[in-house]
From TrEMBL:
Keywords from the named record: Cytoplasm, GTP-binding, Hydrolase, Nucleotide-binding, Ribonucleoprotein, RNA-binding, Signal recognition particle
Record's subunit section: Part of the signal recognition particle protein translocation system, which is composed of SRP and FtsY. SRP is a ribonucleoprotein composed of Ffh and a 4.5S RNA molecule.
Lineage: Bacteria, Pseudomonadati, Pseudomonadota, Alphaproteobacteria, Rhodobacterales
Enzyme Commission number: 3.6.5.4
Protein name stated in the entry: Signal recognition particle protein
Presence of the UniProt keyword Nucleotidyltransferase in the record: no
Catalytic activity reported: GTP + H2O = GDP + phosphate + H(+)
Enzyme class: hydrolase
Native organism: Albidovulum sediminis
Domain of life from the UniProt record: Bacteria
Amino acid sequence: MFENLSERLGSVFDRLTKQGALTPDDVRAALREVRVALLEADVSLPVARDFIKAVEEKATGQAVTKSVTPGQQVVKIVHDALVDVLKGEGEPEALKIDNPPSALLMVGLQGSGKTTTTAKLAKRLKDRNGKRVLMASLDTNRPAAMEQLQILGLQIGVDTLPIVKGETALQIAKRAKQQATLGGYDVYMLDTAGRLHIDEVLMDEVQAVRDAVAPRETLLVVDGLTGQDAVNVATEFDGKVGITGVVLTRMDGDGRGGAALSMRAVTGKPIRFVGLGEKMDALETFEAERVAGRILG
Ligand code: GDP
């Protein structure tokens, strides 16, 4: 998911580590290349700037340039700065679904991979966490979307709320809550309707649902291939409905990865999961250390 960035940084750091002794100017020149690589990966400008500044302050110090392995020290500083920007403070380790039945609200634009992600996450909660999960589609405009969730549910062995024609999203959400309570489910996941663009009607609907079910988590699903747009969508959704985390999909594609690096710094919200394919198992938790390691090869 970070092939290009990883390759670019790899060549900068290869040169740096082979060079032996380093002056602060050598380090600064290398960091200029890192900055360009970040921008080419579609990392937002202020994030790239702050990142380089933080690294430069540490990496041009005496302790680094006078050390026997200055190149490696710089790589280590970059690694730690990547972990910082990916993780941020106080990242919750897991989804808070300890108070059954907990609602998980899934929001996002149409085509972002929301329904697929809902099912992937339901499967994960069932298989790995032993949770009883109920899924419900609130997409009253698109019967096909409701059927899609039902089909996925059958495929992964997770129950879906029976479809009743003519209900509003809010009515479906309330019925899901009731069914989850009566049926002894741990979690009920609400796959809200997506639109092609963020609009007031969509936001009003999501707000009404949110107020009715008081979700433990509101996860925004965004297409990781859209780079900075993904971050803009997250900012808007957070402003309107309040999100607790982000799932970046299509990170198996040849995206430039910038969304992953900017998301936390810009929105203050953690990336919880990444989608890595169309299959139901292609969902990974997002761990800053591992991702930083992947970026640096
Ligand atoms: P929705 O409109 O947001 O509910 O989007 P869907 O869940 O229907 O997904 C749209 C398309 O994206 C489907 O063909 C999915 O299989 C595909 N998709 C979803 N997540 C991923 C992912 O992580 N990687 C890839 N390659 N495809 C994905």
